[in-house]
Design brief:
Length: 44
């Protein structure tokens, strides 16, 4: 039951967080966010 409401909120939050995360990741990617996305990609 928790997975259903969570997925609904994630979809709406994902669209709003997608553009914000991309900007933050691009800015941090130049610094120390390079190893972070690599780990996230492995988890996905």
């Amino acid at each position: 039951t928790q997975a259903k409401p969570k997925t609904r909120r994630t979809k709406k939050e994902r669209e709003t967080k997608k553009p914000e995360k991309t900007k933050d990741v691009k800015k941090d990617t130049k610094g120390e966010k390079k190893p972070k996305p690599s780990k996230k990609a492995e988890k996905k």
